[in-house]
Predict the structure.
Amino acid sequence: MVINMAQINVSHLTFGYEGSIDNIFEDVSFSIDTDWRLGLLGRNGKGKTTFLKLLQGMYPYQGAISAGERFDYFPYTVSGEQMLQPAAEFMEELKPGCEDWRVIRELEQLGRTAEILYRPFGALSPGEQTKILLAVLFSAENEFLLIDEPTNHLDHASREIVKHYLASKKGFILVSHDRDLLDFCVDHVLVLNRQSIELQSGNFSTWQENKQRRDQFEQAENEKHLKEIGKLKQAAARTAAWADKNEVTKIGFDPIVEHDRCKNTRAFIGAKTKKMQSRVRQMEKRIRREIEEKEGLLADLERPADLKMMPLRHHRETLVNVREYALEYAGAKGPLFTGLTFEISRGQRIALHGSNGCGKSTLLKMILHRAGIIEAALPVRETGVCETASGLTVSFVNQDTSTLRGSISEFCKGRELDESLFCAILRQLDLERGQFLKGMEEYSEGQKKKVLIAASLLVPAHLYVWDEPLNYVDVFSRMQLEKLILEYEPTMLFVEHDVRFREKIATGTVELL
């Protein structure tokens, strides 16, 4: 086989996990240029991360994948022992042949100096860790890079730096659900649709506009075919009825009533009936042809179900009141923040915004503690006022999914949720029924997030507190949730680094400096 050094060729790729009924990829073929900045899109569970692993040869598959360049994958796995060491000591374990000067050069493009390479990796912020791993990733040449969700858990400032850094590079596949990142960084998209795989030039917005036009066309064509099929079926039924009625008159007649009829008329009636039956057969062929032309239409149509939630109306106008508030962890060098003042009124959706480590999640937990959702007090010193309305019902989505284990039934019993309604919401969020039979520890991170979101939507509440709910959640579900929130207008306090989501649903922003 001749390998094009400028391309990655995927030919007749077929792959499914052992024990799974359906294959993830079925006889898939396409080619990728190795200087593209390629965005990989698809619903949670459609096989994005699986495809990256297949490129690395981690699973056996049918078909062929050929490439003239080596692959490398982000994020690297950093062991517990390595977390205690400076990155300078274990970089070559992550990427054999990695040279310090190249990593330092890449770090400078990411706005950091070599100094962070000599601090314990575990003591660095998520943004600093990501920048080191990206610098290691891009420190070699003649590689095609596989980048899986690089901005999860990063604050806005770090996301902006990573966004501009990736836009300056080429030769990678980027898996991300961040629409802003995809629009800024990629020049091609590979989309894992419901029934097909699509490759086209442009960014996410370009693809979305094309898809909306195509979906509208297919819906119009589908309606046209359905109308034509309906007309043909009615005409065929009428003609068949006439043929049957005509055939009945072939045998026996009343000579007094039908005085102009003779025995030779029988042959004429038979010929007429045969002609009508032929017309019926022709119509049935046209019906089959119309149905065949209709097949394939709407197969990839995204039809997100309209979700529902049950916000409650509290008797008080102000649900959360924070005045001149400050928080400081015991033993810390200084406070997380001071002088914080804001309130949340009925119907407001307040976004907390700030850098990693500024205290956003801690503030959420203090408000949850005041509302009686979290019983144990945090090891913090506080000054000022942080109070919630009495009798406040709060629905909480935690950013941590590590506690999700066991079956869906056990989860619902533990939270006193109606299992059938809960599963219905998960189906509306595009979680496949086969997942309901698995333990939740086997779910992808995006699927785990959907479990927490579904549980929150099922709880009637005065206030919805969501802490980074969209990490790993696919872009289609993000837009689905945006529509839901704008329709039901619940009172919310949330932390979310997805710029598009925050801009669409927040009625106000509180900056933690």
Remarks:
- The radius of gyration is 31 Å.
- Residues 35 and 171 are 4 Å apart (CA to CA).
- The longest strand covers residues 318-329.
